[in-house]
Design a protein that fits this description.
This protein has 265 residues and is of the alpha+beta class. It has one domain: Immunoglobulin-like. It contains nine helices and eight strands. α7 packs antiparallel against α8. The longest helix has 20 residues. The radius of gyration is 18 Å and the shape is globular.
């Protein structure tokens, strides 16, 4: 049995088990608990990043059911790079982080989707790469990787998904450094193209095998497709490579969530 088929069966079995559950469980899905989310945004390899924007979107609700609550929340980081959100419900969430002069970052992660939340707020730490990390922007040719990545970012953030996809197709034909590959992968996640994102992250993982970022991208791309086995592997590989304690705790919780789904399936 292929992994995608296994994951579809697991999801179907999970949904069936929830629908057959107690009235109390049904009420919980109708009126899910709200959670407090908090964390910080850093410059990759550096300190806190003030003024970064965090936006959420939800793919699934509690117990991997259809999401029925508010999906979009936005906030900005404070002076110390910290942020918090109140009112988020349990489920599978997309976290999009962006800031001027930095490359966007997208993480797809279950947040108490299967397991009841702890009393403590859910917490993570995410990092943004400066756009200049791809190389000099000033003076770069219009068809250079640096310019094309920024064009794709503009298209994705401007909701012009066809334009962003067209630029990603050009980038897929070019030899890119790992930072640009991860940026292209994150942009693909922004326009909800996890298959394209996976290709970029796989190349980045080969180029920089010790870096956590491509593995986190692979886990997020797989989770967007609800490919549980691949997501579990990506999260575990990212956890083994990062030194960020908050991110490590987030990944450990995500792994626990996926293991719960696979046990039910």
């Amino acid at each position: 049995m292929s992994r995608p088929t296994r994951d579809v069966i697991a999801a179907a079995a999970l949904a069936a088990s929830v629908l057959a559950g107690s009235p109390a469980g049904a009420r919980q899905d109708q009126y899910p608990e709200t959670l407090r989310l908090r964390g910080d945004v850093l410059v990759e390899g550096g300190g806190p990043l003030a003024g970064a924007r965090l936006r959420t979107d939800a793919l699934r609700g509690p117990n991997a059911n259809q999401i029925v609550a508010q999906r979009e929340f936005t906030t900005r980081t404070g002076r110390n790079g910290d942020w918090s959100l109140l009112g988020v419900t349990r489920g599978l969430w997309i976290l999009e982080v962006s800031a001027p002069d930095h490359l966007p970052h997208v993480v797809v992660v279950p947040i108490s989707m299967m397991n009841p939340p702890d009393k403590r707020p859910w917490e993570t730490s995410l990092s943004l790469l400066p756009a200049a990390a791809m190389g000099p922007i000033e003076g770069a040719a219009l068809n250079s990787p640096q310019r094309l990545v920024l064009d794709a970012v503009a298209g994705a953030q401007g909701k012009d998904r066809p334009a962003a996809r067209a630029v990603l197709a050009k980038l897929a034909e070019m030899p890119l450094e790992s930072i640009s590959l991860c940026a292209a992968g994150d942009i693909a996640l922004l326009v909800r193209e996890p298959v394209i994102a996976r290709r970029f992250f796989e190349l980045a993982a080969k180029a920089t095998p010790a870096w956590y970022r491509p593995q986190l991208g692979l886990g997020s791309a797989a989770m967007m497709n609800f490919d549980l086995d691949a997501a579990l592997k990506g999260y575990a590989e990212a956890r083994s490579r990062t030194k960020n304690e908050k991110l490590t705790r987030m990944l450990s919780a995500a792994i626990k969530e996926l293991q719960q789904i696979l046990r039910i399936g």
